[in-house]
Design goal:
By secondary structure, the chain is α+β, with helices and mostly antiparallel strands. The chain has 7 helices and 5 strands. A hairpin with a 3-residue loop joins β1 and β2. The N and C termini lie far apart (72 Å).
């Protein structure tokens, strides 16, 4: 396998090893999965594999683009394109935050731990009441945010007005006349 890549035959080999079967059978299964997904998506159906992701079809509107070589405008027609949105389990696996899936079917069929009872679940946050008190709190919060914004603006103006302190070298460089370069330097030497 190339570094960072897996082609179709390497995928078939990996499926055969995980399933404990023959490569020819694994190739037929992999091809069947790909064909089923492509047929369903091209027919306009959405294929969702929970935890892995969702294959879908979306329409791309007609637009005008530019030829990068010539800069000439080019009309791009509307098109139907396949899309894939990865699932949470897939995202976590790539990020390295979850353990890999079980290798054997027996481990996959093992019952999961029961969900915690309602008593163990954390209490949900209460929604604020939509009465006079809640409105007054919101209004007070808005005023506080506005005061903070005004204070930040005033502080920004104060710092903008003050000139930054300069060291001895910076002050000397500013006081000295600029050196001339190119034609200006030649003219200065010749007295023109």
């Amino acid at each position: 396998m190339e570094a960072g890549r897996m082609n179709r035959s390497e995928l078939v080999r990996a499926v055969a090893e995980r399933a404990g079967g023959d490569e020819a059978v694994a190739r037929r299964h992999v091809d069947a999965v790909f064909e089923a997904v492509m047929d369903a998506v091209s027919a306009g159906e959405r294929v969702v594999v929970t935890g892995f992701g969702a294959f879908d079809r979306s329409s791309r509107a007609a637009r005008s683009a530019r030829n990068p070589r010539t800069g000439a405008p080019v009309e791009v027609p509307a098109a139907l394109v396949p899309t894939f949105r990865f699932g949470q389990t897939f995202r976590n696996r790539v990020a390295g935050t979850t353990a890999p899936a079980p290798a054997s079917a027996a481990e996959a069929a093992a019952p999961a731990e029961p969900a915690p009872a309602a008593e163990d679940a954390p209490a949900q946050a209460k929604k604020p009441k939509k009465g006079k008190k809640a409105a007054a709190k919101k209004e007070g919060a808005k005023k506080a945010v506005a005061k903070k914004a005004v204070a930040k603006e005033a502080a920004a103006k104060e710092t903008a007005v003050k000139a930054p302190k300069k060291g001895k070298k910076a002050a000397a460089a500013e006081a000295a006349p600029k050196k001339k370069s190119g034609k200006g330097k030649a003219r200065a030497k010749s007295g023109k």
